[in-house]
Amino acid sequence: MPELPEVETTRLGLLPYVVGRKIVVVTVRDFRLRWPIPSDIATTIEGQTIRHISRRGKYLVFELDGGFLLSHLGMSGTLRAYLKADVPIVAKHDHVDIVLSDATVLRYTDPRRFGALLWIAGAHLNHPLLDSLGPEPLSDAGFSGNYLFEKSRNKTQSIKQFIMDGHVVVGVGNIYASESLFRAGIHPARQAGRISRPRYILLATVICETLRDALAVGGSSLRDYVSADGDNGYFQINAFVYGREGALCRVCAGPVLQIRQGQRATFFCKSCQK
Ligand SMILES: [Zn+2]
After folding, report:
1. Cβ(147)–Cβ(170) under 8 Å?
2. Scanning 22, 119, 250, 262, which has its CA 20 to 30 A from the CA of 192?
């Protein structure tokens, strides 16, 4: 599933191909994403210029003249820009094509159709999907160990589920949660409300480090992930624990264990994480 580093990599990959271009033609072949694409999306955005692409959590925000095109890649979505000469023949899961003024095609592909393409009219980026999101770990001054500590008081859920909750902090997906907890030495099943302030301060630091490491290598958690400009963006940041069940811990040489938490696999070392 595309995680924050993959989405950010997509954003950075698309910027040089789309910013400043006008949207000329929009073709929607399948409106049925997680939320339906608005039926009038083509007439709404044709003629508008893409001013910038920003990101909020895992949402890409295309800033147009009259509002915002909000996109989410869901479980399996990709957004790629193809130059005029390189546009592939339309395949089964290519649901949307946005043709730009220089004939570049911005193509949304999503086999599982869990993504989104929505329109927010007006000058302010307000939408129910965005309003309750927690702070950005890499860019928001509101994200810190003190913030996590205060937010976690009285929380009985596990620390892993706590940091994966987008209302607490955005962008800590399954891989990054396991890796960050290893780096912080915190057992993933420990109750969030019973972890001390100093441990949260360390955890906030290593969450940022883990995400930055992923960004540095192009970011990926999907085997077939390809970044926006076609480069392979396969991320396995030399994982300490993720995906290494039964292998030796890189720190203590004990076995890496796997448990299930909230339907998701968690990897950890019981000697290194307390
Ligand atoms: Zn260990």
Report:
1. no
2. 250
